[in-house]
Design goal:
The complex is a heterodimer of chains A (about 140) and B (about 325).
Chain A: H1 3-10, E1 13-14, E2 27-30, H2 34-40, E3 45-49, H3 54-63, E4 67-70, H4 78-87, E5 91-93, H5 98-107, H6 115-122
Parallel strand pairs in A: 2-3, 3-4, 4-5
Antiparallel strand pairs in A: 1-5
Helix pairs in contact in A: 2-3, 3-4
Chain B: H1 2-31, H2 34-37, H3 51-61, E1 65-70, E2 73-79, H4 80-88, H5 96-99, E3 107-108, H6 113-123, E4 127-131, E5 137-142, H7 143-167, H8 170-174, E6 182-188, H9 198-209, H10 214-234, E7 238-244, E8 248-255, H11 263-266, H12 276-280, H13 288-295, E9 298-304, E10 308-316
Parallel strand pairs in B: 3-4
Antiparallel strand pairs in B: 1-2, 4-5, 6-7, 7-8, 8-10, 9-10
The chains are: A alpha/beta (about 140), B alpha+beta (about 325).
């Protein structure tokens, strides 16, 4: 999906200036935990998050995130906008919650960044572990 | 599993690569003006010259049509088709004025190439005269001019990108030694979340300038950022030191304390001593060190309480981006 289609699907708004709406994202990831973004995303991912501090942009730059969607109507502070502009990372806004925004994109066929498929294939013993032994 | 992931990544970059090239041409077509690609030295005729004279002008210049200019203004165009027709009918001595096309479709010098391309598609003419804002003939445009212009500008773009990409990496080839190491140092302040991550951003840009593979650059950036975050959250401040060599990059995060009492515990995934305000920022989940471990080819970690901690991360470049 490209950014224009994403905005359409989530009924979102564009928060950054000078954005090429034809920019394609290959997959998406919803996370409020920056370590998860760093650990499990790939270059070209769309990040959906409820956090709006500048470190979200910084994390995205490191992880090669293509664009960021802020969920549940949160607007980023000026320093976040400024940092995103300097890094060339487009910011989008959704009025829906994380669950709803992800659901809208998922139901339109937007691929996940692969954490789930990775977890499924690599740890067949995952079910047997029991909740007390799971680290995350 | 890693092979499969890498496969996906390679496929993706190839796709986005060709997409980027296409977009670049599309952008150029809208960006470039007719005057940037047109032929400026236009061969013209005067309407009182004869068709016979026209034949010599076309033959000697290897062209198939000319604009007709009178008193500085373009008054028509004539092509080789009109010439052939005139010769067939024995009208070689007739003046061009009688045979020329008076209603000429022209392009403006400041039109975009996109506009000119659509004119070529619509009218099927071989060339268009180019007029300036005052209606004066300033050039002529063929489809060949457009292709040459696009290629020239694409080449210039590509060249400047190449220079940008390789300028920094030349350092390793230009300076001869048994072993050349580029050392970059960055100071990281404690608790400074406004500027936190700047060191890692700079490391990332430096690696890009040095021409490191994008996948390696990503691994190093992520690990360095996790290390920088640790310095910000847990220490009195510290330093990130990058040692770059052509085949290996070492990143060291070093601080002046307070040090970690139980290193084994700190290395456990999910173990964290981060305060709540850090967690609210999306950090401090205790995944940093295990994430660093999965990004590095080799890692070592020492800490002395009251003195400080030293984290060394090594990335092999010879493996070409894989771990």
């Amino acid at each position: 999906m490209n950014l224009e289609q994403i905005l359409d699907v989530i009924d979102g708004q564009l928060l950054s200036d000078n954005v090429d709406l034809s920019t394609e994202v290959d997959m998406a990831c919803g996370a409020d935990l920056m370590s998860d973004v760093l650990a499990f995303t790939h270059s070209g991912t769309l990040l959906l998050t409820g956090l709006t501090n500048p470190q979200v942009v910084r994390t995205s730059d490191m992880a090669g995130i293509k664009a960021i969607v802020f969920v549940r109507g949160k607007l980023p502070p000026p320093e976040t906008l400024k940092l995103a502009e300097s890094m060339g990372i487009p910011l989008l806004g959704s009025r829906y919650t994380m669950y709803e925004t992800c659901g809208l994109l998922y139901s339109q066929g937007q691929r996940s960044c692969g954490l789930f498929t990775l977890a499924r294939s690599e740890s067949d013993d995952w079910r047997g572990k029991g909740p007390q032994n799971l680290s995350t | 599993m890693m092979t499969e992931l890498r496969g996906t990544a390679v496929g993706m970059s190839a796709r986005s690569g060709s997409h980027a090239e296409l977009t670049k041409v599309q952008e150029l077509v809208y960006e470039l003006r007719v005057e940037q690609v047109m032929t400026r030295d236009v061969i013209t005729c005067n309407p009182d010259q004869t068709m016979k004279e026209l034949k010599e002008i076309l033959r000697l210049n290897h062209i198939s049509g000319v604009p007709i200019v009178e008193d500085g203004q373009m008054v028509g165009m004539i092509s080789v088709e009109s010439l052939i027709k005139a010769l067939e009918q024995g009208e070689a001595d007739h003046p061009i004025r009688e045979k020329m096309t008076r209603h000429v479709q022209a392009v403006r010098a400041d039109d975009s190439l996109a506009g000119a391309v659509s004119l070529f598609a619509r009218y099927k003419y071989g060339r268009f005269p180019v007029l300036n804002a005052d209606g004066q003939l300033v050039g002529i445009l063929t489809q060949g001019d457009i292709v040459r212009g696009l290629l020239k500008h694409l080449d210039a773009l590509w060249h400047s990108e190449e220079i940008r990409r390789y300028r920094a990496s030349h350092i390793f080839e230009d300076i001869e030694s048994e072993q050349t190491t580029l050392i970059l140092r960055y100071r990281v302040a404690a608790q400074d979340f406004t500027h936190g991550g700047e060191a890692s951003s700079k490391v990332k840009r430096a690696l890009e300038r040095l021409g490191a593979h994008p996948q390696v650059t990503r691994r190093i950036s992520v690990a360095t950022y996790e290390a920088e975050t640790n310095l910000m959250i847990h220490t009195h401040g510290g330093e990130i030191i990058v040692e770059a060599q052509p085949d290996v990059i070492k990143v060291v995060a070093i601080d002046d304390g307070p040090g970690i009492p139980d290193v084994e515990q700190a290395l456990q995934a999910g173990y964290s001593t981060a305060p709540d305000w850090i967690r609210e920022l999306g950090f401090g989940a205790g995944m940093g060190l295990s994430n660093i471990r999965s990004c590095t080819d080799r890692m070592s970690f020492q800490s002395v309480v009251g003195e400080g901690t030293r984290l060394e991360m090594v990335f092999d470049l010879s493996t070409g981006g894989s771990q």
